[in-house]
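User: For my dataset I need records formatted as: sequence, then structure tokens, nothing else. Please produce one.
Assistant:
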Amino acid sequence: MPESKIKIKTGKDIVANDLTALRRSVNLTRHSTCAEIELSIDAYPFTAQARNATDELIGYVSAFSDGVFITMIGDLLVHADYQRRGIGTALLKSVERRYPGIPIQVHSLSDCLSFFTRQGYMPPEQPIRVVLKNITRANEAVIAWTKN
């Protein structure tokens, strides 16, 4: 599919079923009921989405910021069939444009580290320990990366 047919837009006009399907395409099944997805969408002040020519949701990013010290990425997802086409980069750039000059923190699974490195993100000078509660699977551990 030509990249010109992919549209990135901001806003919360996302159907929970669409985001559930996107999460499943990248093997994220935890917290994937429609009610949980709706709560998540509502909680984030910033969301952007990527849609293909048939209006299928193929990418999504959520973020929040205090507007001064930190912006945090919640989800950055690209459908498995559309990865490595610049969609994740475009979604990440939408967050960077929304919160210019504010450091962005990403909690990334290890298989995404090369993506964030290519975008100019780097690990902190001192290791960060992330303390989690109510996590039931070991593979949900995160690594924090930031961009100034």
